[in-house]
UniProtKB/TrEMBL annotation:
The keyword Oxidoreductase applies. This is Putative Glyoxalase/bleomycin resistance protein/dioxygenase. The lineage of its organism: Bacteria, Pseudomonadati, Pseudomonadota, Magnetococcia, Magnetococcales. InterPro entries: Glyas_Bleomycin-R_OHBP_Dase, Glyas_Fos-R_dOase_dom, VOC_core. Residues 1-56 form the VOC domain. It comes from Magnetofaba australis IT-1.
Length: 71
């Protein structure tokens, strides 16, 4: 199981990955373009929990981070 965090851009994914590494996380897979059209990477936090940080162009998110549901 992995915990996931969705970001608003590829650049935001890179920032979160860098913050995680600076805080002691181990980068498991650097952020990169993925087969389904998004961008994601994985890190393990100091307790060993696996996290995915992703940008999904098909998952609409509002500026405040909430899910943008269609009307």
């Amino acid at each position: 199981m992995a915990l996931a965090r969705n970001e608003l851009s590829k650049e935001a994914v890179d920032r979160v990955m860098a913050q995680a590494k600076a805080a002691g996380a181990t980068i498991v897979r650097p952020a990169q373009d993925v087969f389904w059209g998004g961008y994601s990477g994985y890190f393990a936090d100091p307790d060993g929990h696996l996290w995915e940080v992703a940008w999904n162009p098909f998952f609409p998110v509002n500026a405040d981070g909430s899910l943008a549901l269609p009307d």
